[in-house]
Amino acid sequence: QVQLVESGGGSVQAGGSLRLSCAASGSIFSINDMGWYRQAPGKQRELVARITSGGRTDHADSVKGRFTISRDNAKNTVYLQMNSLKPEDTAVYYCNALIATMSRKEYNYWGQGTQVTVSS
């Protein structure tokens, strides 16, 4: 069994910063792509950023230059550094990872979500 546990959400004023973390644990053979998604009230879940096992990154246009995704493969952890936060960044942020278990089967896992609230 595999779990993704997120931390680091909270409330901040516009212009502030937060750092999200997501640690994967359990019966893991390898972790491929990892990413962060977000879902604001009344809106669809959207990709914020993703990173391959080799470190190649992709960020949504709305967060380029403000957010940075990174990962520590030794710790099975992905991070999202969020700077210059705006009220429109308010959402529940979800960690996502494509993980091969010890059975060598690959599954798509989601974290439980962490709330980020940015006030103006």
Concise structural overview:
Strands 2, 4, 5, 6, 9, 10 and 11 form a seven-stranded mixed β-sheet that branches. A four-stranded antiparallel β-sheet has the order 1-3-8-7, with no helix packed on it. It is mostly beta strands and 120 residues long.
Q: Would you write up a description of this structure?
A:
0% of the residues lie in helices and 62% in strands. It has strands at 2-7, 10-13, 18-26, 28-39, 46-51, 57-59, 67-72, 77-82, 91-101, 106-110, 114-119. Strands 2, 4, 5, 6, 9, 10 and 11 form a seven-stranded mixed beta sheet that branches. A hairpin with a 5-residue loop joins strand 5 and strand 6. The protein is elongated.
Low-confidence stretches: none
**% residues in beta strands:** over 45%
Counting DSSP H or I runs of 4 or more residues, the number of helices is 0
Q: State the end-to-end distance.
A: 41 Å
The chain-level mean pLDDT equals 97
Rg computed from alpha carbons, rounded to a whole number of angstroms:
14 Å
* Helix and strand run: EEEEEEEEEEE
From the spread of the alpha carbons, the general shape counts as elongated
Number of strands: 11
Structural class: mainly beta
Residues in helix, %? under 10%
Largest sheet report: 7 strands, mixed
Which secondary structure elements does this structure contain, and how are they paired or packed?
Elements lengths: L1 E6 L2 E4 L4 E9 L1 E12 L6 E6 L5 E3 L7 E6 L4 E6 L8 E11 L4 E5 L3 E6 L1
Parallel strand pairs: 2-11
Antiparallel strand pairs: 1-3, 3-8, 4-5, 4-9, 5-6, 7-8, 9-10, 9-11
